[in-house]
């Protein structure tokens, strides 16, 4: 049985960093970041990667079929049974599409949806700080003020509906992301270890 933890959070919430640290500490936990998987496809130079980059550079969501295929293949190819995926779902369309997949796949259990919660002000400060600190040529194409605003709106627009959907299923776990890294990671790690 593959036990899946979805981790959502605003741009700059630290969701990818948190999940990556936890997976790095436990051999029986693997972590996939939707953003990183999509950027890997872009880096491959494939035609699909060019399509993906056209969305990422605008802070827009890539099409449903692309992101669903990306996460389903990551789950199916995962080498261990506890899987953390950060950056999904980002729309109610993605949420319902995945709910259908999980309901059909006996081998996949959605164990929890962890929301790393930060205010827009903290998210903005972190993203624009990351952009300012990036080495020349290393800045992410979507870390500009304008694209950040679009990414933030895309995240917050469906959030209430996503929170309600998973609260109803008793699957939502909120973690305060406005702290230093260690207590956030400790809280998330304890929750995952208690529930995997
Ligand atoms: N679940 C998803 N659905 C569609 N597009 C996605 C998804 N996850 C990531 N992306 C694309 O990758 C970009 C970067 O995502 P990510 O690295 O997680 O950054 P952040 O969440 O901090 O904005 C998103 O702005 C979007 O273009």
UniProtKB/TrEMBL annotation:
It is an enzyme of class 2 (transferase). It catalyses: AMP + ATP = 2 ADP. The gene is adk. This is Adenylate kinase. Keywords: ATP-binding, Cytoplasm, Kinase, Nucleotide biosynthesis, Nucleotide-binding, Transferase. It comes from the Bacteria. The keyword ATP-binding applies. Pathway: Purine metabolism; AMP biosynthesis via salvage pathway; AMP from ADP: step 1/1. Consists of three domains, a large central CORE domain and two small peripheral domains, NMPbind and LID, which undergo movements during catalysis. The LID domain closes over the site of phosphoryl transfer upon ATP binding. Assembling and dissambling the active center during each catalytic cycle provides an effective means to prevent ATP hydrolysis. Catalyzes the reversible transfer of the terminal phosphate group between ATP and AMP. Plays an important role in cellular energy homeostasis and in adenine nucleotide metabolism. Monomer. AMP binds at residues 34, 39, 60-62, 87-90, 94, 140, 151. Its EC number is 2.7.4.3. It is found in: Cytoplasm. GO terms for molecular function: AMP kinase activity. Its main location: cytoplasm. Belongs to the adenylate kinase family. Residues 33-62 are annotated as: NMP. The keyword ATP-binding applies. ATP binds at residues 12-17, 130, 179.
